[in-house]
Amino acid sequence: MSELMELVRAGRTAEVVGLLDGMTDAERRARFPELKALRKELRVAPWESDARRAYPALHAAGAACQTGAAGVASWIAAADLRWSQVSPGVLLHVLGDRETDWLADVTHRLAQRPVTAWVPYELMAGLVRLSGCPVPTTDAYVQGWVDHLHGSWQRGGTLLDRLRQDPHLRELVAALFETADIGSRLQWPNHDGPDSWTGALAQLTVEGALDRGATVDACVARLLRGGPVADQRVFLRLLKSLALTRNEERERTADWLALASDATSTVASYAQSVLGALALDGELESRQLAEMSDAVLFRTEKKLVRAQLVLLGKVLTRDPSAAGELLPSVAQAFGHEDAEVQERALKLVERHAKKLDPVEARADLAMAAEQLIPGLRARAVRTLGTAPADPEPTGYEELLPPAPRPTRLAPAAASAVELAEEVGAALASEPGVTAFERALEGLVRHAHQDREALLAALEPVITRRWWDGTDGATPRDIFGSSYGGMTEAADGLDLLLATLRGRIGTATLHARVQRGSTSSHDCAHGALNRAFESRLWEVAYRLRTDPLPFLLSTPTWSTGLLEPAELVDRLDTYRRLGARVAATDFAQALLRVRRADREAAESAARRASALGTEEGTRLAAWLTSATPALPTVQRRTSGPRVLVELDEVPDLQQDFPAEFQPLGRPTSVLQKQRWCYHWDDDIRQHWSALLPEARELVAARLLRDLSDLAVDDSRGAAAALPPLAESDGEAGEAVHLGLAYGLGARHAEDRLVAVDALLVLAARGQLDAARLGTDLGQLVRSGAVKTQRLAESARTAAATGANATIWSVLSRTLPVLLADLSTGGTAAPARGLGELLAVAAECAERSGARGDLPHLAQTAARRGSSRLVAQARRLRSALGEEVAA
Fold first, then answer.
1. Mean pLDDT computed over 279-297
2. Which residues contact 224 (CB under 8 A, 6 or more apart)?
C-alpha cells in the first residue's frame, strides 16, 4: 500500500495535503485508481468508524488527483462523501494551483448542482475569487449566499453593512428575484430594519447601490409569476418598503390589473388598493376599472369583493357618467355565493340605475339579476322595470354526484417480472386495497409456482428495501421479537419479501402464528390491525414451510367484498390440489364473502356443502345463517366528544381464529391507550376491507380518531370516511358521528374528504339526514365542532347540487343552535352561525323547501341588522313565512 493510501485510511488529512503538495500532476493521476477503489470499499459501511475517519482525507485526495473539471466537481459533490467531507479551505488549497479557466469550469459545475447537493457556499465563493470568473447566479449559489450572510452575524454589523461590502451585490440581488423558494430564507427577521432583507434592500435602493427601476420591476415581475406564499409575502413587503411614487404606480397599471385578477389574496389586495387610489384620482379609465371589477368580483375572497363594490360606489358617485360601463361589472356580483354581497351589489345598481340607458343596459342587468336569490330577484325586477327572461319557477331536481362504483380486481400478474413491477410501485406509494391485494395474491401464486424465478425478478425491488443488506453478511432476523407491528399496508409486502429473501427466521414466523400479535399497548383499533396482521404472518409462514397455491381471501371488488361463487370455486381447487387451507386466510374470506344477496348466497351454499370438506361445510353454514344484526349501541360523552360503545357480536367469535375474535368483542371509549403505533392514515382503508358488510364495527373503532379531526385539530384520519361510505352494511350511529366530525375538521382537505363521503352516502340512499343533523347540532353545542367549519363544509356540498340533501341535514342542526337564542338569554350566538344560516337559506331557496323551522321566528325578530339576523330573516322568507319587521 502506498504512503498516500495509508495516510488516507488513517484519516490524517493534514499529512495527506502535505504529501499531495509535493507530487507532480502525473504522480497524482497515478494514485487516483486506488482512491476510487477505496471509495467503493467504504460505500458498503459508510457509517462505521473506519469509513468516517477516512472520508475527509479521501474527499481532499480524490479532488486533487483528477485532471478533469467534470470529474472533480462530481467527486466534491458526491452523495456518499457529503456527510464527512473535508473543509472548503482544504479543497481550495489543493485546487488553488490550477489554471483559472479550469477553476472557473469547476466553479460553475458545482454551482449548477441542485440545492440538495449541499455544496458549501464558502467553497464556491472561494473558487470565484481564485478564478476571477463571473459570479454564478444559480439557485444553489444564491441560496448559499443568503445563508452565508445570515450566518456571518458573528463578524458584527448589520445585514445592510455586510451587503454594502459585497463586490457582487447587483448580480446576486438580481438573481434573488429569479431564485425558486427563496422567500422562506429572506423573511427572517420579520421586520423592515437594517438587519432584515427587505429593510436592507430598500435602503440600498435609496442609496443608489441598487437601481430603483430594476428593483421595482423585479419585485412586480416576481409577484406576477406567483409561487409559494413565503415568496409572495417577502417580495410584497419589499415592494411596500420601496414606497412607490404615483408615477411609478401609474406606469405599471397593467401589472396591477393582472395582480388584482390572479394573484394571492394579500397581493391582490395591495394591487386593488393601488388601482383604487388611481381610480379615485381620475387616473384610471372607466374601461380599465370595469376590467378590474369583472375579475375581482369573480374571486371568492369576500373582503376583496366588498372592497371592490365600495370602490365602484365611490367612483360612480364622483362620476355618474361612468354608470354605463361600470354597472354591468357590478352585476357580476349578482352570482356571488354570499347573499350579503349580492345585496350590496343590488343596492349599488338601485342607487345608480336611473343613470342608465332605459332599454339595452337595463335589459342586460335584468338578465344578470336571474342569479340573485329569490327575495333580491324580486327587488331587482322592480328596480330595473323589466322581468327576467324566465320568471316562472321550475321544479327542483336534486343533482347528486354519482356514487363511485366498485371495481373488479384484475387477475394477479401473469409473469414474475410484471409482478415485480407492481410490487415495486406499491412499495413506492401508499397502495390502495386493489393494488395491495393484487400484489399479495401475485406473490403467493408465483412463490408456489417458481420461487427462484420470482426471487430473480424481485431482486431490483428487494435491494432497495431498508431491511436488505448488500455486504454478503449473514441475514439477520429484522422482523424478530423487537418488531413492533405494521404501521402501513406496505409493511405487509415487506414481510413477504423479507421471508422470500430469508431475512426472517422460521422460528420468528412460527412464533408469530402461534402467539399472535397481542400487545399490552392494544388500542381502540387494535382488533382491526390484529386481524389484518395475522393473515399476513400466517401467509409468510406458509411461504417458508408449505406455500399456498393462491389466497382464498383475495376480494372480488375494490371495497373488499368477495363473491360467494368465487370463494366456492377456490375451495374446490384447493380440494383437487390437496392443499391445506390457512386458517386466517379462510377466516378473512368468510368476513369478506357477500351475504346480503341471499339468492346468490344460498346457491353458493349448496355448492359449498357438496364439496365434502370442512371448509365447504363451514362456508355453507355461514352463507345460510342470517346476517348478524348490529350490536347494541350506547352513546358516551367524553369531554366535548360524543363516542359510541358496541356490545359483542357472538357470530364473529365462534369458530374464528383467536386473532379475529376481538372483532366481535365489545368496544369501550376507554380503550384508547397512551400509546398507539397506528399513525398512518393509509392503513384505515384496509381495515374497512376487513369487514366490507359491517362498516359500523369498523367506524366505531375509528371514531375517536375521527373526533380528533375536530377536537384536537389533527390531520388525515378523514381518509377513512370514503371507504366507509362505499362499504356495505348499515350506516348507523358510528358512521354518521364519524361523518359529523369530518365535516367539522380543522383542515380543509379533511373537510373535503368528509363532504365526498356524505355525497356518496346520499347518492347510495344510505344517508340518514335527520340523524346527521341532530348529531351536528349536539357536537356544535358541546364545542366539538365549530360552526364556521361546518358552514364551509355544507356550502361545499351544496355547490355540487345537493341543496335538498344539505337542507335536510341543516333543518335538524339549526333548531338545536337557535334554541338558546329564542329563550331571551344573554348567551352570545355561536360564532359562524350567521354563515350556517346563509348556507341553509341558499339551500332552501334553491330546493324550494317550505315549512316551519323551530326557533327561527324568534331569531329573525331580533333587533339589528347583524349577519345572523339578516340571514335568519332571509331563511324565514325562503321557507314561505312573513319576515319580522
1. 93
2. 255, 258, 259, 263
Long-range contacts of 35-38 (CB under 8 A, 24+ apart): 35/5, 35/8, 35/61, 35/62, 35/65, 36/62, 38/5, 38/8, 38/9
Residue with cell 366528544: 641
C-alpha grid cell, residue 33 = 485508481
- Going by the DSSP 8-state scheme, the letter that residue 641 receives in this structure is E
Nearest to 685 by CA among 724, 640, 653, 645: 724
CB 454, CB 447: distance < 8 Å: yes
What pTM value is reported for the model?
Answer: 0.75
Question: Are 636 and 702 a contacting pair, CB within 8 Å?
Answer: no
The identity of residue 8, as a single letter, is V
The region, left, alpha or beta by phi > 0 then psi within -120 to 50, assigned to residue 156 is left
Give the dihedral of Cα atoms 347, 352, 353, 356; nearest 10 deg: -160
Give the 3-state secondary structure of residue 411: coil
pLDDT tens digits for range 53-87: 899 999 999 999 998 999 999 999 998 888 788 99
Residue 770: phi and psi, rounded to 5, are: -65, -40
Q: What is the largest CA-CA distance in the chain?
A: 102
Compute φ and ψ for 201, nearest 5 degrees. Answer: -65, -40
Distance CA 374, CA 393 (A): 10
Helix axes 286-296, 302-318, angle to 10 degrees: 160
Q: What is the pLDDT of residue 701?
A: 92
**How many whole angstroms separate alpha carbon 137 and alpha carbon 147?**
15
Residue ranges of E strands in 563-712 = 633-638, 641-646
Tens-place pLDDT, residues 570-608: 999 999 999 999 999 999 999 999 999 999 999 999 999
Helix (H) or strand (E) holding 750: helix 748-763
Report the alpha-carbon distance of residue 776 to residue 628 in Å, rounded.
29
**Within 10 Å of residue 8's Cβ, how many Cβ atoms?**
29
Report residue 114: phi and psi, to 5°: -65, 160
- In whole angstroms, how far apart are CA 880 and each of 441, 458, 626? 60, 69, 48
> Which of 793, 884, 777 has its CA nearest to residue 843?
793
The packing angle between helices 564-577 and 614-624, to 10°, is 170
3-state helix, strand, coil in the chain (%, to 5): 65, 0, 35
CA 375, distance to chain mean position in Å, is: 40
Question: What would you report as the CA-atom Rg of the chain, rounded to the nearest whole angstrom?
Answer: 35
Q: Give tens-digit pLDDT for 307-325.
A: 999 999 999 999 988 988 8
pLDDT at 353: 82
589: cell is 374470506
Strand-pair partners of 637: 642
The tens digit of pLDDT for each residue in 752-810 reads: 999 999 999 999 999 999 999 999 999 999 999 999 999 999 999 998 989 999 999 99
